Amino acid sequence: MTTATQTREPFETIQTDSRTVACDGGDGPLGHPRVYLEIGASGSIECPYCSRLYVLKAGAKAGGH
Known about the structure:
mainly beta; Zinc finger CHCC-type domain-containing protein; Znf_CHCC
């Protein structure tokens, strides 16, 4: 049974040096449309299609692309 307070684990976590990332779900034609995501102050963002979690690496530039 799942409750509203439970959190789910991300499908995959990807460390990045850039605040802007592109995600297409991988797997070629089995992926999803490419979306560009901007990592904000939280330091991470989750893809709305495949739930990959992109995390800004420690020491990455605040405004870096």
